[in-house]
Design a protein that fits this description.
Elements (H helix, E strand, L loop, with lengths): L1 H14 L34 E10 L2 H10 L6 H9 L9 H6 L3 E6 L3 E8 L25 E13 L2 E12 L2 H38 L2
Antiparallel strand pairs: 1-5, 2-3, 3-4, 4-5
Length: 215
């Protein structure tokens, strides 16, 4: 069964979702419960210690939402700018390409449908101690004393002109020691992480709906 599942996930990551099928909707995800259908992030980090999901409904097309994800400068939000600065991360021109230049890994990208980013390192340290990993090696990479994170944007067309955009973040620690250190870090950072993601969704919504209305 696991082999069949892996083959199905691999086919979706290569080709995107079939035209005849809609991506599964993510509803009520709590810890490892509530997921009834696979989504692309499952191929990269199916097991995790911590996760969070946020979603927003947007008046627009999947194409417009995807373009906003790829191009929007999130530093326009004072909240995101401040929180990135507190974390020691670049706080100007915060867009996808800038994140990729600063250690994030683009694991898979299907326009108008989804993209998944990855990160490997010791996130609880001031510098993050990020480890460069090739996308094809991310699933198997398990460096001792480190953690892996996967972060996606998932676009679902509910009906013409109405899109549900969700973002999920998963973190898995490689051993007991890293798990203890990460959990202490997450007690402080977790609420800010959620705040950043909600701000990003609101920024994407504002950009897309402003384009639709011609503002």
């Amino acid at each position: 069964m696991g082999v069949i599942r892996s083959l199905r996930v691999g086919r979706i990551l290569r080709n995107g979702w079939p035209n005849a099928a809609r991506p599964p909707r993510r509803v009520g995800l709590i810890a490892n419960q509530g997921r009834f259908a696979m989504t692309p992030i499952d191929a990269f980090l199916p097991h995790y210690d911590v996760h969070e999901v946020h979603a927003i409904t947007i008046a627009g097309s999947p194409d417009a939402v995807y373009r906003a994800i790829r191009s929007l400068d999130f530093s326009r939000s004072p909240v995101i700018r401040c929180l990135f600065r507190m974390r020691g991360m670049p706080s100007a021109a915060i867009h996808l390409e800038r994140l990729l230049q600063n250690g994030f890994i683009l694991l898979t990208d299907h326009p108008d449908q989804f993209l998944v980013l990855g990160l490997v390192g010791r996130f609880w340290l001031p510098t993050g101690k990020l480890i460069p990993v090739a996308p094809e090696d991310f699933h198997a990479a398990e460096p001792a004393g480190c953690a892996k994170a996967a972060w996606d944007f998932f676009i679902e067309e509910m009906r013409p002109g109405r899109v549900r955009l969700s973002t999920e973040t998963r973190i898995r620690c490689m051993d007991t020691r890293s798990r203890k250190r990460f959990m202490l870090y997450w007690r402080v950072i977790g609420p800010f992480s959620a705040w950043i993601r909600r701000e990003m969704l609101r920024g994407i919504k504002a950009r897309v709906e402003a384009e639709v209305s011609g503002r």
